[in-house]
Amino acid sequence: MNSPVSIDEFLALLARYNEMIWPGQIVAYALAGLAAGIGLKRSATGNWFVPLMTALLWCWTGLFYQIGMLRQFTAAAYAFGAIFVLQGVLLLIYGFRGELRFRFRANVFGIAGTVFILYAMIAQPLIGMAVGHVYPQAAMFGVTPCSLMIFTFGILLWVEPPVPRVLLLIPFVGSWISFISALPFGMMEDYPLPVAGLIGSLLILHQERKLTVERLKAAKGKLKAEI
User: Fold this and answer.
1) CA–CA gap between residue 17 and residue 143 (Å, rounded)
2) What separation in angstroms does the CA of 155 have from each of 15, 76, 98, 186?
3) Which residue(s) pair with 159 in the sheet?
4) 44 class by beta-carbon count within 10 Å (0-12 exposed, 13-18 middle, 19+ buried)
């Protein structure tokens, strides 16, 4: 795949971006850490706070990384930036409507979500360092797209079903676009992104289907008991 940006230009862009937003990277970790910590247990606060923190990261990345930095290389950055902001707005809407209920459950869905969150926040930066992407020439967590999308799938796996389908669309499509974009630059830490997008989406949809089946069985059982 041909890229409008060389590897050296891309790494230089990351360096400029990281230097410009410092200490924004620390703030991103703090916001995500708070979101994950509060999202562990079911609470009225978590139901709006977790989407709010995640939405801030999406809006930041859309405005300052996509539009603020990538626009110098491609006009498509404006569209990508707008889409990231849209995802942030959607998270805010569903969060403040009370349609997202966060609670970690010790099942395959909750554990998978935890793995995604830990990969995005810890493993992905470490793998990047191991392959030579050392700060400031590194795609830092929460302020660049790839880690943010994996983190978002992790957070959504903690949501009690159903998860609004529209919240899956942008991260899923974006995971494949970002993966393809990362290939020419050898960003090995981003290679699991489409896998996370696919597995995360399938698990969330399967969890919803499983709940629907359980509710139907319970309703049938109740109906039989009444008869």
Assistant:
1) 10
2) 28, 28, 16, 27
3) 102
4) exposed
2 inside domain: no
Q: Are 200 and 157 in contact, with CB atoms under 8 Å apart?
A: yes
Query: Which residue blocks in 22-144 are alpha helix, DSSP H?
Result: 24-39, 44-60, 76-96, 108-118, 124-130
Predicted TM-score (pTM) of the model is 0.91
Domain range enclosing 82: 7-226
Q: In degrees rounded to 5, what are phi and psi of residue 159?
A: -75, 135
pLDDT digits (tens, 9 = 90+) for 29-70: 999 999 999 999 889 999 999 999 999 999 999 999 999 999
204: closest CA among 163, 155, 174, 176? 163
Burial of 57 (0-12, 13-18, 19+ CB in 10 A): buried
Instruction: Please state, as a whole number, how many other Cβ atoms lie within 10 Å of the Cβ of residue 18.
Output: 19
Q: How many domains does the chain have?
A: 1
Q: For residues 42 and 211, give the distance between their C-alpha atoms in angstroms, rounded to a whole number.
A: 18
Side-chain-side CA neighbours of 121 within 13 Å: the count stands at 22
Write the CA distances from 179 to 32, 56, 116, 119, 124, integer angstroms: 22, 23, 16, 16, 14
